[in-house]
Design a protein that fits this description.
Layout lengths: L3 H9 L3 H23 L2 H17 L12 H26 L16 H17 L4 H12 L4 H8 L3 H21 L4 H14 L3
Helix pairs in contact: 1-2, 2-3, 2-4, 3-4, 4-7, 6-7, 6-8, 6-9, 7-8, 8-9
Length: 201
Amino acid sequence: MSTDRELWSRAADGDSEAFGALFDAYARHIYNHCFRRTADWSAAEDLTSVVFLEAWRRRDQVRIHHDSVLPWLLGVANNVLRNRHRALRRHKNALQQLPAPACEPDPADDIAGRIDDEHRMRDILALIDQLPRADREVLELCVWSQLTYQEAAIALDIPVGTVRSRLARARTRLKNLSATTPAPRRWSDRLTALSRKGEQL
């Protein structure tokens, strides 16, 4: 089987099938990363498409670490997520001048599980969003996406030592927040487990 380096070399030359093989290998990773940052399944799907469109556009700029293109793709995803956050903030500011629309409950039973997942993910993000952005990004890459320190350093374009110090700081702050912030017990336990997982990297 071709390595990521070989596939990307072919993709950089315009081989769409090689790029498609990379998409098949990493789309789920990028999708999960985007969902964990947005707590929105639909947004995660759209953002995943944007990430790979941007990756195709910038395919001659890729940095591959140990024959894996995933760290670079996650770096692209972070940039896409930042752009979305800025756009949503501007949109929210504009909507503040308008009456709030009426909320209609969705009667479809088949999406109940997805909505529940989104609510629970928002509980987690409510705590994680209290961390500084730099600490939050390292936590998300090293704990949720399970990148090594070196891979996270590539994704964020920072030194490895900075990744280590930010992750240690994020674990400590997250532990303190989960102990003091009112939240459902199971999600407080989940955050603590995520913090402990980071110590094993």
